[in-house]
Hints:
Layout: E1 7-8, E2 15-17, E3 20-21, E4 29-30, E5 39-43, E6 46-50, E7 64-69, E8 72-77, E9 80-85, E10 98-99, E11 106-110, E12 116-120, E13 133-134, E14 141-145, E15 151-155, E16 168-169, E17 177-181, E18 184-188, E19 202-203, E20 210-214, E21 220-224, E22 229-232
Antiparallel strand pairs: 1-2, 2-3, 4-5, 5-6, 7-8, 8-9, 10-11, 11-12, 13-14, 14-15, 16-17, 17-18, 19-20, 20-21, 21-22
Amino acid sequence: MNWQEIKVSADNTHFLFDGKPIFGKTFIEVLKFHSPALAPVLDNSGAYHIDVNGNELYRNRYSRTFGFYCNRASVIDGNRWFHINEKGERVYQTSFSWTGNFQENICTVRNTDNQYFHIDINGNRIYADNFVYAGDYKDGIACVKSKDGFYRHIDNKGKLINDKSFLDLGVFHKNFATAKDNNGWFHIDKKGKEVYKNRYLTIEPFYNGFALVTTFDNEKIIIDEKGQKILTV
């Protein structure tokens, strides 16, 4: 059975293969299978993971379990959050108030003082700074919000990739990121420089060279990577 072809039922209570229920069991809740072919489930005994044959991965039970990313899964034990590996073993001894999912072998976490930072695959901090918020890494770059209220981009060592700061910020997608200043939203390059002068009420990332944006008059238009209006939607 190819685990990638196993689907979650519409009511999120069981799994389907070729459109038919499998494992002979209905759960309170299930989430889809992730590599290495493991899925989070919840039944009356608690939350845990099962393998591609429907067998429990371990005897422990948690308040909630999430999918595997980079062979690590977030679990909640009471009010403690941490990660387990694909053998069901706890990866590190530190507990957090919240943990994200590993992306590019790095994960964003929040400690008991509501400070955000990133850890590596073994639970070690990758830099000393704390942030008001820290997002997932994408292509080696993450968005963080500092205590001064501004957002910035950092690399996978925790270093700033440029000297620019913004009121809000998105991840880079095809070499451009969304950013916001006092005048509105726009797109920037990796040096933090605006790629055009206009500002908008809302914007989306560029999709194959074009982006949907909303003007302050609530007009939706398509712009190209130079900020030129292509058409009205």
